[in-house]
Fold this sequence. Notes:
Helices cover 41% and strands 20% of the residues. By secondary structure, it is of the alpha+beta class.
Amino acid sequence: MTGIIILIVLGILLFVIEFLLVPGITVAGVGGLVLTVLGVYKAFDDYGTETGVWFLIGTLLLSIFVIAFSLRARTWRKFMLNTNVVGTVDEHQWAGEIKPGDLAETITRLNPMGKIMINDGVREAKSIEGYIDAHSKVEIVSISGTHITVKPKK
């Protein structure tokens, strides 16, 4: 009887792993199904219909209880990362440093986003006139927060 209980418990455990950790139809789900059905089958085969029915009812109730308990939010709180990331973007970091009309050079190809070198600093910029090859001269058109818009220098 202990072997039957172990089969059923392992099957339910594999079902929980399937539902929570490895979504989709995987070895855990198939293994859980096989072990659970095998355990119930062995109960019917070894101990008769009455005991087999009790094992079947117990397996269904235990499965429902374990899945309901596993899906509760508080169950997984001890496993969760409970830190808050506190950070902001300094939108005024370029105030007075970069202004429309300044010249820069592209480091990478702008298609339409890429890197530019301006005032000895590397910044990300967006082209308003299509693609601009690397190592081309560009002119700053506008600055909005941390977004720099450029066009090719003619």
